[in-house]
Write a structure and sequence with these properties.
binds nicotinamide-adenine-dinucleotide; 5-stranded parallel β-sheet; binds flavin-adenine dinucleotide; alpha/beta; 12 helices; FAD/NAD(P)-binding domain; FAD; about 475 residues; NAD
Length: about 475
């Protein structure tokens, strides 16, 4: 134990997507700040989430286009994927992001980076088990928890006896899986499933629910299913293994058993993509009086205040939508409230997101099923991508656009864009929603030809017929 307790104006636990900009801003304002991080600066997004996956997905898209080159009249010859080079490229991008972030932290006056694992001793005091083995006590009048989540491990008999990968370890494989079994048909399962299929692996996705991407509308989920099956991915719906074992005499084989009626699925590698759990058990939150919900997520009000005065929680650890841009918005709220006493809340903010399969699924606002359950009066506009000029010209016709418009106000209340650059087109719709424009502004707006955005004219014209 270090003998001197250090005191700060604020301590942030976890260098996630909200915590890192928050410590930099507070230090900039002259606060004496400590950032405690137990693994790597940059948190999940930079080291294990968005950055590495989107870098590898870019490689997978190139592999896919090479395989399709003859459709464009280009003869590319034999091609293969060098997974080690793919991984090397991913490591370089991650390292550049992480080191950039680390340098900004280290160079910031008033800011101390403490590398170790923090847990509460009291409501203003933390003990940090430092990486080099010692422990240190630190104290502050303001404490912000930004500790994120970790991959969940489902309770399935036999799982402990096989080698199972999570979203982090699957990006560090020595070789391409011959047959990857993906358990879970959510964001992680679909992004990795398609990626490895495009790298050349056989892929089977096993999903417990009756559709992929459980929260999405059925028409969108069905189209996603068709697209993935069209690329040769096996998808089992309403399937949940009851037991897992390894095939006798073959260390590298996993076998998933289902109920008696279904055949077992055997593969070379297993990826668990069944959700994430909050990083709260190590924090000793009860010593600070900070309450968690039944799943361990920290309870906060709309100002991100926990049940303990001057202790806040931001990002994934508070539950709710788990995206980098949401954690970053928590930072904006936190900073304005701490520095300028503005009393901002996270109520009624936009929650856009993109599932980075190819074609992408960009989403904003209500789904149709949410709009129905809220009793909203609305109209639905749809347009298949094979009626979009740019999509035909670029031979990327898979997908559809779907938008919901309030019947009384003509305002757009939700959209799902499943198509190439779906995230960018969704963002254009989001800007219209942010500006509270009626759908007619997009129907009648002049957009450059031939862009994907131009098809916003056509999708909303559908409401007039
Ligand atoms: C495979 C994958 C792909 C993803 N892709 C996307 C995407 O494309 N777009 C998107 O918006 N989101 C994506 N996400 C989600 C995104 O990564 C998270 O929403 C985001 O990182 C949340 O950040 P956060 O601020 O909550 O904390 P995190 O980024 O999770 O960081 C928390 C930090 O706290 C540290 N920590 C935990 N406990 C302690 C402790 N006791 N002491 C000290 N430090 C501690 C951890 O080591 C970690 O560094 C993806 C996630 C995964 C897993
Ligand atoms: N593009 C992005 O923004 C992006 C990408 C990756 C991850 N993320 C974030 O990470 C979080 C975690 O993603 P995820 O895909 O792990 O979780 P998820 O909750 O999105 O999906 C998990 C799926 O696994 C299924 N499942 C659970 N247990 C199962 C079992 N035993 N057998 C079969 N199926 C089972 C569930 O029905 C669910 O559909 C997401 O909520 C998201 O916020 C975001």
């Amino acid at each position: 134990m270090k003998d001197r307790k250090r005191e700060f104006d604020a301590i942030v636990i976890g260098s996630g997507q909200g915590g890192t900009p928050l410590v930099l801003s507070l230090a900039d304002e002259g606060w004496r700040v400590a950032l405690v991080e137990r693994k790597a600066v940059g948190g999940t997004c930079v080291n294990e989430g968005c950055t590495p996956t989107k870098t590898m997905i870019a490689s997978a898209r190139v592999a896919h286009l090479v395989q399709r080159s003859e459709e464009y009249g280009v003869v590319a010859g034999e091609s293969s994927v060098d997974i080690q080079k793919v991984i090397q490229r991913k490591r370089q991008v991650v390292e550049s992001f992480r080191e950039g972030s680390r340098k900004r932290i280290i160079d910031s006056p008033n800011l101390s980076l403490i590398e170790g694992s923090a847990s509460f001793v009291g409501d203003r005091e933390l003990e940090v088990r430092l990486k080099e083995g010692e422990t240190e006590l630190i104290e502050a009048r303001t404490i912000v928890i930004n500790t994120g989540t970790s991959p969940a491990t489902p309770k399935i008999p036999g799982l402990e006896r096989v080698e199972a990968h999570d979203s982090t370890s699957i990006m560090e494989l020595d070789e391409l899986p011959e047959h990857l079994i993906v358990l879970g048909g959510g964001y992680v399962g679909l992004e990795f499933g398609q990626m490895f299929r495009r790298f050349g692996s056989r892929v089977t996705i096993i999903q417990r629910d009756k559709q992929l991407l459980s929260l999405e509308d059925e028409d969108i989920a069905t189209l996603v299913l068709e697209i993935l099956r069209g690329e040769g991915i096996d998808v089992l719906l309403e399937s949940e293994p009851i037991e897992i074992d390894s095939c006798e005499g073959n260390r590298n084989s996993v076998r998933l058993r289902f109920s008696d009626k279904e055949k077992p699925v055997v593969g070379s590698h297993l990826l668990l993509a069944t959700g994430r759990v909050p990083n709260t058990p190590d924090l000793n939150l009860e010593r600070a009086g900070v309450k968690v919900d039944g799943r361990g997520f920290i309870e906060v009000n709309s100002k991100l205040e926990t049940t303990t005065k001057n202790v806040y929680a931001i990002g994934d650890v508070k539950g709710g939508p788990a995206f980098t841009h949401i954690s970053y918005d928590d930072f904006r709220v936190m900073k304005e409230n701490l520095v300028n006493g503005r009393g901002l809340t996270i109520q009624e903010r936009f929650v856009p997101y993109v599932v980075f399969i190819d074609p992408q699924l960009g989403r904003i606002g209500l789904t149709e099923k949410q709009a129905v359950s809220q009793g909203r009066q609305f109209r639905v506009a749809t347009l298949p991508f094979d009626r979009v000029a740019r999509a035909i010209e670029t031979n990327e016709t898979r997908g559809m656009m779907k938008a919901l418009v309030d019947s009384k106000t003509d305002r757009i209340i939700g959209a799902a864009i499943l198509g190439v650059e779906g995230g960018e087109i969704m963002s254009a719709i989001q800007i219209a929603m942010m500006g509270n424009l009626p759908y007619t502004s997009l129907r009648d707006g002049i957009f450059a030809h031939p862009t994907f955005a131009e098809s916003l004219n056509n999708v909303f014209m559908g409401l007039d017929t």
